[in-house]
Fold:
Amino acid sequence: MKNITKKILWISALSIFVVGIFYHQKRIVDDERDFATFGFIRKGAIYTLVGDKPISDFGHRVKPHTKSVTPEEVGFRKVKLDLSKLRYSKNDYFKKNPIDMWKRWKKRHNTSGKHFALVLVDYRSTEQIYLVNKPALKEVLSTHYHLIVDAIHEEFNISQVLQEIDNPNSFFWKKIMSPKYSRIQMGLCFGYGLENATQFEKCITDTGFENAFSSNNDKHNEASVNLRFQSKVSLKDLFIPVFRFFKESDPTVNFYKKERARIQKEYKDADLRQLLIDALKN
Structure:
């Protein structure tokens, strides 16, 4: 009788252990899926993974006791957000922080491969994750080399820049991706196009240029906030990646409208977590 009791207890303990492992693994997979979804959909980085957008924001965290304003948020500073159009509430919103998810991700997976890299850049007031499409970035740096050199007042070696892209303290992140010089070279690296980047720079430096703001920016801002906080998102929620909307005929806007339609069709059933894992394999 004692042996039977011991056997039952052993089987029960083993069952609890197996179930515990299963749920622990499920939590890991769910967390990694949330991380991929955060970057690809909530921040629009899917355009970088399966398109030609060189760099995308993959998420950031404002450091305690600081107030950070990203280049995109600077463009929204004249826009009044209509809170009635937000699709989340205090009881229904996405609570996870991308930096925390990033730290857990990098313990289990690569953060850089041959064609893509996830880079965490530590700024004075924020920690910012970027997804880099290396071939697309090389194309932009090559095509607009002289314009970028004029903006940052320094020449650079493209091959060396790409070799050091995983280093958040490298020349690229400290100089080319710095608003200290201008937003034009940043806009080009973000894949916003020369016209949109130039207009945004003028918007920042010329207060009289405010009249160029389109009402579409209100919708863009609302969509960005909703994507960050609403609990459930899908590729149907993808926004158009630009600094700001200045006019409907912007070639970059038209390009990304077509890209969005293509992505929504081709990747509607895709496992975003697996896409990220595969992209970062060496």
